[in-house]
Amino acid sequence: MIKIDKTGKRPIILVKQGEDKGKDRLLVETEKLKQAYLRDHIAYKTGKKIFNFKSSWYAHSDIKSALIKIQHGKCCFCESSIRHVSYGDVEHFRPKAAWTIKKKDKYTRPGYYWLAYDWDNLFFACQICNQSSNKGNLFPLVDESKRALDHTYNVDEEESLFIHPEKTDPEEHITFQEAFICPKKHSRKGEITIKELDLERNRLYENRKELHDKIKGLIDLYNIIPDQVPESEIPKAHVVDVLKNMIAPEHQYLNMIKANFGKDIQKIVNDLVYADDNLGSKKSNIQRLRFIFGLSVTYCKDIIVTICRNLSHLFMAIVKLFKK
Ligand SMILES: [Zn+2]
User: Fold this and answer.
1) How large is the greatest C-alpha to C-alpha distance in the chain, in angstroms?
2) Which of 72, 118, 185, 228 is least crowded, fewest Cβ atoms below 10 Å from its Cβ?
3) Alpha helix segments (H runs only) across the chain
Protein backbone atom coordinates (compact mmCIF):
# COMPACT_ATOMS: atom_id res chain seq x y z
CA MET A 1 0.00 0.00 0.00
CA ILE A 2 1.41 3.37 -0.99
CA LYS A 3 0.16 6.92 -0.42
CA ILE A 4 -2.06 8.26 -3.20
CA ASP A 5 -2.47 11.94 -4.09
CA LYS A 6 -5.70 12.81 -5.93
CA THR A 7 -5.56 16.54 -5.14
CA GLY A 8 -6.80 18.74 -7.96
CA LYS A 9 -7.44 15.82 -10.31
CA ARG A 10 -11.19 15.37 -9.89
CA PRO A 11 -12.94 14.97 -13.26
CA ILE A 12 -16.07 17.07 -13.76
CA ILE A 13 -19.03 15.36 -15.42
CA LEU A 14 -21.65 17.89 -16.48
CA VAL A 15 -25.39 17.23 -16.73
CA LYS A 16 -26.22 17.46 -20.43
CA GLN A 17 -29.95 18.10 -20.33
CA GLY A 18 -32.96 18.84 -18.14
CA GLU A 19 -33.33 21.37 -15.34
CA ASP A 20 -29.84 20.64 -13.99
CA LYS A 21 -28.16 21.11 -17.38
CA GLY A 22 -24.60 22.40 -16.99
CA LYS A 23 -24.32 21.48 -13.30
CA ASP A 24 -21.81 19.06 -11.78
CA ARG A 25 -23.40 15.60 -12.13
CA LEU A 26 -21.85 14.14 -8.97
CA LEU A 27 -23.10 17.04 -6.83
CA VAL A 28 -26.57 16.83 -8.37
CA GLU A 29 -26.82 13.08 -7.65
CA THR A 30 -25.53 13.60 -4.09
CA GLU A 31 -28.16 16.25 -3.41
CA LYS A 32 -30.90 13.91 -4.68
CA LEU A 33 -29.78 11.22 -2.21
CA LYS A 34 -29.73 13.68 0.70
CA GLN A 35 -33.23 14.94 -0.12
CA ALA A 36 -34.59 11.38 -0.46
CA TYR A 37 -33.14 10.52 2.96
CA LEU A 38 -34.62 13.63 4.61
CA ARG A 39 -38.06 12.78 3.17
CA ASP A 40 -38.12 9.28 4.68
CA HIS A 41 -35.08 8.68 6.88
CA ILE A 42 -36.71 5.93 8.98
CA ALA A 43 -37.40 3.79 5.91
CA TYR A 44 -33.77 4.14 4.81
CA LYS A 45 -32.48 3.30 8.30
CA THR A 46 -34.63 0.17 8.61
CA GLY A 47 -33.80 -0.96 5.10
CA LYS A 48 -37.42 -0.69 3.96
CA LYS A 49 -36.15 1.67 1.31
CA ILE A 50 -32.74 1.43 -0.32
CA PHE A 51 -30.90 3.96 -2.44
CA ASN A 52 -30.48 3.38 -6.14
CA PHE A 53 -26.78 4.22 -6.59
CA LYS A 54 -25.78 4.64 -10.22
CA SER A 55 -22.47 3.04 -11.13
CA SER A 56 -22.69 4.93 -14.43
CA TRP A 57 -21.80 8.06 -12.41
CA TYR A 58 -19.50 6.99 -9.56
CA ALA A 59 -17.70 4.56 -11.89
CA HIS A 60 -18.07 6.82 -14.95
CA SER A 61 -15.32 6.19 -17.49
CA ASP A 62 -13.81 9.65 -16.73
CA ILE A 63 -13.67 8.85 -13.00
CA LYS A 64 -12.26 5.38 -13.50
CA SER A 65 -9.67 6.57 -16.05
CA ALA A 66 -8.55 9.37 -13.71
CA LEU A 67 -8.17 6.96 -10.77
CA ILE A 68 -6.27 4.44 -12.90
CA LYS A 69 -3.90 7.18 -14.05
CA ILE A 70 -3.36 8.60 -10.54
CA GLN A 71 -2.85 5.12 -9.04
CA HIS A 72 -0.71 3.92 -11.97
CA GLY A 73 -3.16 1.06 -12.59
CA LYS A 74 -2.50 -0.38 -9.12
CA CYS A 75 -4.93 -1.43 -6.38
CA CYS A 76 -5.13 1.21 -3.62
CA PHE A 77 -4.77 -1.51 -0.97
CA CYS A 78 -2.55 -4.38 -2.16
CA GLU A 79 -0.58 -2.34 -4.76
CA SER A 80 -0.93 -5.05 -7.40
CA SER A 81 -1.15 -4.03 -11.04
CA ILE A 82 -4.75 -4.74 -11.94
CA ARG A 83 -5.27 -3.83 -15.54
CA HIS A 84 -3.52 -6.78 -17.16
CA VAL A 85 -5.59 -9.34 -15.22
CA SER A 86 -8.99 -7.67 -14.65
CA TYR A 87 -10.99 -4.48 -15.12
CA GLY A 88 -10.75 -3.46 -11.44
CA ASP A 89 -13.44 -1.74 -9.34
CA VAL A 90 -14.14 1.81 -8.33
CA GLU A 91 -14.15 1.26 -4.59
CA HIS A 92 -15.93 3.34 -1.94
CA PHE A 93 -13.60 3.75 1.02
CA ARG A 94 -16.63 4.44 3.24
CA PRO A 95 -19.29 1.90 2.20
CA LYS A 96 -22.15 3.65 0.40
CA ALA A 97 -25.12 1.34 1.21
CA ALA A 98 -24.42 -0.16 4.67
CA TRP A 99 -21.53 -0.76 7.06
CA THR A 100 -20.49 -3.29 9.66
CA ILE A 101 -17.83 -3.35 12.37
CA LYS A 102 -17.16 -7.09 12.15
CA LYS A 103 -17.55 -9.29 9.09
CA LYS A 104 -20.20 -11.55 10.64
CA ASP A 105 -22.28 -8.71 12.14
CA LYS A 106 -25.54 -7.53 10.58
CA TYR A 107 -25.30 -4.52 8.28
CA THR A 108 -26.20 -1.10 9.64
CA ARG A 109 -28.04 1.11 7.15
CA PRO A 110 -28.20 3.46 5.39
CA GLY A 111 -24.39 3.57 5.07
CA TYR A 112 -22.44 6.55 3.73
CA TYR A 113 -24.93 7.29 0.94
CA TRP A 114 -23.90 10.96 0.73
CA LEU A 115 -20.35 9.89 -0.18
CA ALA A 116 -21.41 7.54 -3.00
CA TYR A 117 -20.36 10.13 -5.61
CA ASP A 118 -17.68 11.88 -3.52
CA TRP A 119 -14.30 11.99 -5.28
CA ASP A 120 -12.44 11.79 -1.93
CA ASN A 121 -14.24 8.51 -1.17
CA LEU A 122 -13.44 6.82 -4.48
CA PHE A 123 -10.39 4.67 -5.26
CA PHE A 124 -9.38 2.06 -7.80
CA ALA A 125 -9.16 -1.39 -6.20
CA CYS A 126 -8.77 -5.01 -7.22
CA GLN A 127 -11.75 -7.35 -6.93
CA ILE A 128 -10.06 -9.45 -4.24
CA CYS A 129 -9.41 -6.57 -1.81
CA ASN A 130 -12.86 -5.15 -2.52
CA GLN A 131 -14.89 -8.37 -2.23
CA SER A 132 -17.26 -9.02 0.70
CA SER A 133 -14.96 -11.56 2.38
CA ASN A 134 -12.30 -8.84 2.63
CA LYS A 135 -13.20 -5.13 2.78
CA GLY A 136 -16.76 -5.28 1.44
CA ASN A 137 -18.99 -3.28 3.81
CA LEU A 138 -16.58 -3.56 6.72
CA PHE A 139 -15.72 -0.19 8.19
CA PRO A 140 -14.52 -0.19 11.82
CA LEU A 141 -13.60 3.06 13.57
CA VAL A 142 -11.09 3.96 16.27
CA ASP A 143 -13.98 5.44 18.30
CA GLU A 144 -17.48 4.22 17.40
CA SER A 145 -19.11 7.14 19.27
CA LYS A 146 -17.81 9.43 16.50
CA ARG A 147 -19.61 7.48 13.74
CA ALA A 148 -21.32 9.65 11.09
CA LEU A 149 -24.76 8.03 10.86
CA ASP A 150 -26.11 10.25 8.08
CA HIS A 151 -25.17 13.34 6.09
CA THR A 152 -26.00 15.70 8.97
CA TYR A 153 -22.95 14.38 10.90
CA ASN A 154 -19.40 15.60 10.30
CA VAL A 155 -17.56 12.69 8.73
CA ASP A 156 -14.21 14.38 9.43
CA GLU A 157 -14.65 13.62 13.14
CA GLU A 158 -14.44 9.91 12.40
CA GLU A 159 -11.14 8.04 12.40
CA SER A 160 -11.14 4.88 10.34
CA LEU A 161 -9.30 1.78 11.51
CA PHE A 162 -8.55 1.07 7.86
CA ILE A 163 -5.62 3.03 6.52
CA HIS A 164 -7.00 5.74 4.23
CA PRO A 165 -4.87 5.53 1.06
CA GLU A 166 -4.75 9.31 0.67
CA LYS A 167 -5.15 10.91 4.11
CA THR A 168 -2.88 8.50 5.98
CA ASP A 169 0.64 7.51 4.97
CA PRO A 170 0.57 3.69 4.78
CA GLU A 171 4.33 3.60 5.40
CA GLU A 172 3.73 4.84 8.96
CA HIS A 173 1.55 1.81 9.68
CA ILE A 174 2.76 -1.01 7.43
CA THR A 175 6.24 -2.37 6.84
CA PHE A 176 7.87 -5.46 5.35
CA GLN A 177 10.44 -8.01 6.37
CA GLU A 178 11.50 -9.23 2.96
CA ALA A 179 8.12 -10.06 1.36
CA PHE A 180 6.29 -10.56 4.69
CA ILE A 181 3.91 -7.72 5.47
CA CYS A 182 3.52 -6.61 9.11
CA PRO A 183 2.20 -3.68 11.16
CA LYS A 184 4.81 -1.00 11.84
CA LYS A 185 5.50 -0.30 15.53
CA HIS A 186 2.43 -2.37 16.55
CA SER A 187 0.12 0.00 14.65
CA ARG A 188 -3.52 -1.00 15.19
CA LYS A 189 -4.45 0.51 11.82
CA GLY A 190 -1.70 -1.49 10.17
CA GLU A 191 -2.82 -4.66 11.93
CA ILE A 192 -6.53 -4.25 10.99
CA THR A 193 -5.79 -3.25 7.39
CA ILE A 194 -3.46 -6.22 6.83
CA LYS A 195 -5.78 -8.72 8.53
CA GLU A 196 -9.16 -7.64 7.15
CA LEU A 197 -7.97 -7.02 3.58
CA ASP A 198 -5.96 -10.25 3.71
CA LEU A 199 -2.79 -8.52 2.53
CA GLU A 200 -0.89 -11.61 3.66
CA ARG A 201 -2.61 -13.83 1.09
CA ASN A 202 -0.37 -16.39 -0.59
CA ARG A 203 -0.56 -15.07 -4.12
CA LEU A 204 0.39 -11.57 -2.99
CA TYR A 205 3.26 -12.91 -0.91
CA GLU A 206 4.55 -14.94 -3.86
CA ASN A 207 4.43 -11.91 -6.18
CA ARG A 208 6.19 -9.72 -3.62
CA LYS A 209 8.79 -12.40 -2.95
CA GLU A 210 9.58 -12.75 -6.64
CA LEU A 211 10.11 -8.99 -6.96
CA HIS A 212 12.05 -8.82 -3.69
CA ASP A 213 14.47 -11.51 -4.86
CA LYS A 214 14.98 -9.86 -8.26
CA ILE A 215 15.83 -6.49 -6.69
CA LYS A 216 18.07 -8.06 -4.09
CA GLY A 217 19.90 -9.88 -6.90
CA LEU A 218 20.38 -6.62 -8.81
CA ILE A 219 21.66 -4.72 -5.78
CA ASP A 220 24.03 -7.57 -4.88
CA LEU A 221 25.25 -7.55 -8.47
CA TYR A 222 25.74 -3.76 -8.42
CA ASN A 223 27.79 -4.07 -5.23
CA ILE A 224 30.14 -6.76 -6.53
CA ILE A 225 30.79 -5.23 -9.96
CA PRO A 226 34.08 -3.33 -9.81
CA ASP A 227 34.02 0.31 -10.86
CA GLN A 228 36.07 -0.58 -13.90
CA VAL A 229 35.24 -3.73 -15.84
CA PRO A 230 36.40 -5.02 -19.23
CA GLU A 231 34.07 -4.16 -22.12
CA SER A 232 32.93 -7.77 -22.35
CA GLU A 233 31.43 -7.73 -18.83
CA ILE A 234 28.27 -6.12 -17.47
CA PRO A 235 28.94 -2.54 -16.31
CA LYS A 236 27.14 -1.00 -13.33
CA ALA A 237 25.18 1.27 -15.66
CA HIS A 238 23.31 -1.69 -17.09
CA VAL A 239 22.31 -2.89 -13.62
CA VAL A 240 21.11 0.61 -12.76
CA ASP A 241 19.09 0.67 -15.95
CA VAL A 242 17.18 -2.50 -15.03
CA LEU A 243 16.75 -1.39 -11.41
CA LYS A 244 15.41 1.98 -12.52
CA ASN A 245 12.46 0.31 -14.25
CA MET A 246 11.64 -1.71 -11.14
CA ILE A 247 11.24 1.31 -8.87
CA ALA A 248 9.20 3.45 -11.25
CA PRO A 249 5.87 4.72 -9.77
CA GLU A 250 3.85 2.35 -11.95
CA HIS A 251 5.70 -0.67 -10.57
CA GLN A 252 4.03 -2.94 -8.04
CA TYR A 253 4.80 -3.12 -4.30
CA LEU A 254 6.84 0.09 -3.90
CA ASN A 255 6.17 0.12 -0.16
CA MET A 256 7.89 -3.26 0.12
CA ILE A 257 10.80 -2.08 -2.05
CA LYS A 258 11.27 1.05 0.09
CA ALA A 259 11.06 -0.89 3.36
CA ASN A 260 13.68 -3.42 2.27
CA PHE A 261 15.96 -1.56 -0.11
CA GLY A 262 15.51 2.17 0.57
CA LYS A 263 19.06 2.58 1.90
CA ASP A 264 20.65 0.49 -0.88
CA ILE A 265 18.84 2.44 -3.58
CA GLN A 266 19.80 5.72 -1.91
CA LYS A 267 23.46 4.65 -1.96
CA ILE A 268 23.29 3.91 -5.68
CA VAL A 269 21.66 7.29 -6.27
CA ASN A 270 24.45 8.93 -4.27
CA ASP A 271 26.97 7.25 -6.58
CA LEU A 272 25.10 8.64 -9.55
CA VAL A 273 24.80 12.10 -8.02
CA TYR A 274 28.56 12.05 -7.42
CA ALA A 275 29.08 11.16 -11.07
CA ASP A 276 26.57 13.79 -12.17
CA ASP A 277 28.15 16.54 -10.00
CA ASN A 278 31.43 15.93 -11.71
CA LEU A 279 30.10 16.14 -15.24
CA GLY A 280 32.03 19.21 -16.32
CA SER A 281 34.29 19.11 -19.34
CA LYS A 282 33.92 16.39 -21.92
CA LYS A 283 37.20 14.89 -20.72
CA SER A 284 36.14 14.73 -17.07
CA ASN A 285 32.76 13.31 -18.12
CA ILE A 286 34.52 10.39 -19.72
CA GLN A 287 36.85 9.89 -16.78
CA ARG A 288 33.97 10.01 -14.30
CA LEU A 289 31.86 7.56 -16.29
CA ARG A 290 34.83 5.24 -16.58
CA PHE A 291 35.31 5.44 -12.82
CA ILE A 292 31.67 4.88 -11.87
CA PHE A 293 30.53 2.51 -14.57
CA GLY A 294 33.75 0.88 -15.68
CA LEU A 295 33.32 1.75 -19.36
CA SER A 296 35.86 2.14 -22.16
CA VAL A 297 36.64 5.63 -23.51
CA THR A 298 34.95 4.95 -26.88
CA TYR A 299 31.88 3.51 -25.22
CA CYS A 300 31.73 6.48 -22.82
CA LYS A 301 31.67 8.95 -25.71
CA ASP A 302 28.77 7.11 -27.29
CA ILE A 303 26.62 6.80 -24.19
CA ILE A 304 27.22 10.07 -22.34
CA VAL A 305 23.95 11.49 -23.60
CA THR A 306 22.07 8.28 -22.81
CA ILE A 307 23.48 8.07 -19.31
CA CYS A 308 22.56 11.70 -18.55
CA ARG A 309 19.03 11.10 -19.78
CA ASN A 310 18.76 7.93 -17.68
CA LEU A 311 20.03 9.79 -14.64
CA SER A 312 17.25 12.33 -14.86
CA HIS A 313 14.69 9.53 -15.20
CA LEU A 314 16.15 7.73 -12.21
CA PHE A 315 16.15 10.89 -10.10
CA MET A 316 12.51 11.50 -10.95
CA ALA A 317 11.65 7.93 -9.97
CA ILE A 318 13.55 8.27 -6.71
CA VAL A 319 11.97 11.61 -5.85
CA LYS A 320 8.52 10.10 -6.38
CA LEU A 321 9.45 6.98 -4.44
CA PHE A 322 10.64 8.87 -1.38
CA LYS A 323 8.08 11.68 -1.56
CA LYS A 324 6.12 11.84 1.69
ZN1 LIG B 1 -5.97 -5.30 -4.09
Assistant:
1) 80
2) 185
3) 25-39, 41-46, 55-58, 61-70, 127-130, 188-196, 202-224, 236-246, 254-277, 282-293, 297-322
CA of 173 from ligand 1 middle (Å) equals: 17
Per-residue pLDDT tens digits for 186-198: 999 999 999 999 9
Task: Write down the pTM of the prediction.
Answer: 0.82
Span from the CA of 75 to the centroid of ligand 1 (angstroms): 5
Return the closest-CA partner of residue 51 out of 110, 124, 104: 110
- How far away, in angstroms, is 1 Cα from ligand 1 center? 9
Quote the ligand 1 centre to 67 CA distance (angstroms). Answer: 14
pLDDT in tens, 94-147: 999 999 999 889 999 999 999 999 999 999 999 999 887 788 899 999 999 999
What are the extents of the domains in the chain?
A: 25-200, 203-322
| Residue 141, beta-bridge partner list | 160
